[in-house]
Design a protein that fits this description.
The longest helix has 16 residues. It is globular and about 55 Å long. It is of the alpha/beta class. Helix content is 37%, strand content 25%. The chain is built from 10 helices and 14 strands. It has a single domain, classed as Ribokinase (UDP-N-acetylmuramoyl-L-alanine:D-glutamate ligase), CATH 3.40.1190.20.
């Protein structure tokens, strides 16, 4: 097994994921779901699962509560993922991915239980205590957690440690109020998030490159990675601009593509690979994830098969 530095994934707002099928999604009658599958979910949880599937080592720091949290924890342990469980308030939320006979997928998520300042303080201290290498903070934040949580964590961890993939107010805070004393190592955005904060469509790879490099220049993060759907991802950093395009694959479900990317990308960095190699690994994992149904993530065999078909290009920096 290739040597690697320690990885801690952090999930403040996990969910027990249900994927199922329905003949037709429409208002009014009771809809009978078939083929239900329950899986442990949440951004950092899925990143840890992807790392484990790819043969890496890491620990999933997960805030879990109530009976749903117990079930989530048991499912995660059954998959062989090392877990550090933090006692969260209330019952862990659930989310649903329902696919109809036409292949349309409907995704529903609950917000999660609100956190008190005491919970936030204990969680922050516990994360810092558990961190020994790279840290991935991924997924949404529970109600009550301040938008600047990620920046505070980056400051406490030190430079070159925190990889962030978040949304909502937490992402807006990072984008709109960069903190030079708490610079993120990598910030990942999907296309919709990038276009929202760019204030305009990013129609092509050069548009994505320009926006990513502008964020690096502003000090939002040392490296910015932006997904652009089937076109792959762009990675920008100091004097660096790369684009990696995956081979064409059949799409079964887009759920889990971003988390699979982040898992493979982080594992590559932890194994001592450079940013270009990590981008290829992440791109292959994202493509592998869309080939699997429901909320399933990438498989190791698919990632290995697809990596050779990814096209890496150096862009004008």
């Amino acid at each position: 097994m290739m040597a690697q530095t320690h990885i801690l994934t952090v999930t403040l707002n996990p969910a027990l994921d249900l994927s199922a099928r329905v003949s037709e999604m429409r208002a009014g009658p009771k809809l009978r779901l078939t083929d239900p599958v329950f899986e442990p979910g949440g951004g950092g949880v899925n990143v840890a699962r992807a790392i484990h599937e790819l043969g890496g080592q890491g620990c999933a720091w997960v805030a879990l509560g109530g009976a749903t949290g117990d079930r989530h924890f048991a499912l995660l342990q059954a998959q062989g993922v090392r877990v550090h469980r933090f006692a969260a308030p209330g019952d862990t939320r659930q989310s649903w991915a329902i696919t109809d006979a036409q292949g349309q997928q409907f995704r529903l998520q609950l917000p999660g239980e609100g956190w008190t300042q005491a919970h936030i303080a204990r969680a922050f201290e516990d994360i810092v205590a558990q961190a020994r290498g790279l840290v991935v903070l991924s997924g949404s934040q529970p109600p009550g957690v301040e938008a600047a949580f990620a920046q505070r964590l980056a400051h406490a961890l030190g430079a070159g440690r925190l990889i962030l993939d978040t949304s909502g107010a937490a992402l807006s805070q990072v984008m709109q109020a960069p903190d030079p004393d708490a610079q993120l190592h990598v910030l990942r955005l999907d296309q919709a998030e990038a276009e929202l904060h760019a204030g305009q469509p990013l129609r092509n790879i050069d548009d994505v490159r320009q926006f990513a490099q502008a964020l690096v220049t502003r000090g939002v993060a040392r490296h910015i990675c932006i997904a652009h759907g089937a076109n792959g991802s762009v990675l920008a950093g100091p004097g660096l601009a790369l684009h990696c395009r995956p081979p064409q694959v059949a799409v079964a479900s887009k759920v889990g593509a971003g988390d699979s990317f982040t898992g493979a990308f982080t594992l590559a960095l932890a194994q001592g690979q450079d940013m270009a190699q990590a981008l290829v690994a992440g791109t292959a994992a994202a493509a592998a994830a869309v080939m699997t149904p429901g909320t399933q993530l990438c498989t190791r065999a698919d990632v290995q098969a697809l990596a050779a078909g990814c096209t890496l290009q150096t862009l004008r920096a």
